[in-house]
């Protein structure tokens, strides 16, 4: 019954633990290639068909979209650019938060500037 009286007091110490959080590499930048767009109307359709036949060994294939669908595609591209930019900002933020700040060189004192060099 007196066993508790023989125990030593418990000392609590707080010791900072440095975490080493590995930082993944950012992916390389996107390298998009620019396609060539043809604008074909009733006025230039024959000239366009002749040109396509010459460039593609006589094969003619069309991919067409309306003006409204082109506007939707442009909107979607802007949304993708916005999303990627915001996502990159989040990644950069967490990278800055989880890495040690660069160590600042010690400032010279006023008297250090008067040291003589040999």
Polypeptide structure, described:
With 118 residues, the chain is an all-alpha fold. Among the domains are: 36-63, no CATH class; 66-98. 36% of the residues lie in helices and 0% in strands. The protein is built from two helices and no strands. It has helices spanning 45-55, 67-98. The longest helix is centred in the last third of the chain and has 32 residues, at 67-98. It is elongated and about 100 Å long. The termini are far apart.
SSE string, helices as H and strands as E: HH
Tell me roughly what share of residues is in helical segments: 25-40%
Bulk shape: elongated
- Low-confidence stretches at least 5 residues in length (pLDDT < 50)? none
Note the gap between the termini.
78 Å
User: How many whole angstroms does the radius of gyration measure?
Assistant: 34 Å
Mean pLDDT score: 82
Helix vs. strand class: mainly alpha
Strand content: under 5%
List the helices and strands and how they pair.
Elements lengths: L44 H11 L11 H32 L20
Give a short summary of the structure:
With 118 residues, the chain is an all-alpha fold. The protein is built from two helices and no strands.
List key phrases describing it:
0% strand; 118 residues
